[in-house]
Amino acid sequence: MTDWAAFARGLAAELRSAPDSTVLVIGESTKPGERRFAQFLKTGTVVSAELTGDEWLEPAFHTDADGASAITRAGWHQPDEAHMGNWWIEFPWSATTDDYQRLAAITVTGLRDGFGIESPAQLVYRGWVERAGNSRLHLPGLGVADEITNAR
User: Fold this and answer.
1) Which of 2, 16, 31, 144 is least enclosed, having the fewest CB within 10 Å?
2) In whole angstroms, what separates CA 148 from the centre of its chain?
3) Mean pLDDT in runs of 10 for the chain (152 residues)?
4) CB neighbours (10 Å) of residue 56?
5) Cβ neighbours of residue 80 under 8 Å, at least 6 residues apart?
6) Which DSSP symbol is given to 54?
7) Distance (Å, rounded) from C-alpha 117 to C-alpha 30?
8) Residues near 107 by Cβ (< 8 Å), separated by ≥ 6?
9) How far is it, in rounded angstroms, from Cα 138 to Cα 97?
C-alpha cells in the first residue's frame, strides 16, 4: 500500500474492531535506533497510542523542529517520563468511530509529516491480544506486511 488515506481508513477500522487487550505496533522494518513507530493499546478503560520519542532513536533519526511541530499540531502530547519518553495520546473507553478515525489521522500525520516516512509501503506491523495468551493478530485491513510472516 502506498496511499496514506487508505492506510488511515484501514487502521481506524482494524483498531475499532480489535478486541480488548490488543497491542499493535506499526513501524519501519529497520534495526533498533532507526525504527520509528506507532504503538497502540486497547484496555477496558482506555485506547492509548504512542509515537517513538527521540531518546529511543539514533541522532540521524531524531524528529526535526518541523516534524515535532507537525506532531504537536496534530494533537499528540509531548514525550514524558510516564510514557517512556514517547509522544502520546489517549481516548477514554469506549472510543467512538470518530475517535478511531481521528487517532488514525494523527498517526498518519506523525509517521508521514513528523517522521518523514514517505509511504505506508515502508511499514510493517506486529499485533497480539494479551488476554488471549498473546495470540497474534492478522490485520489485512492495514495493507502493510506482518513483521513476522510478511503476509499482508
Assistant:
1) 31
2) 17
3) 90 96 93 91 94 94 96 98 97 92 98 96 95 92 87 72
4) 16
5) 88
6) G
7) 12
8) 8, 11, 26, 38, 49, 51
9) 21
| Residue 25, SS3 per DSSP | strand
Instruction: Write out the E strands in 97-148.
Output: 123-129, 135-136, 145-146
Which residues lie below 8 Å from residue 90, measured CB to CB, with a gap of 6+?
46, 47, 48, 49
Spatial distance between the Cα atoms of 111 and 28, rounded to a whole number of angstroms: 10
In the block, cell 485491513 appears at 141
Check: CB of residue 36 under 8 Å from CB of residue 57: yes
Helix, strand, coil share of the chain (percent; to 5) = 40, 25, 35
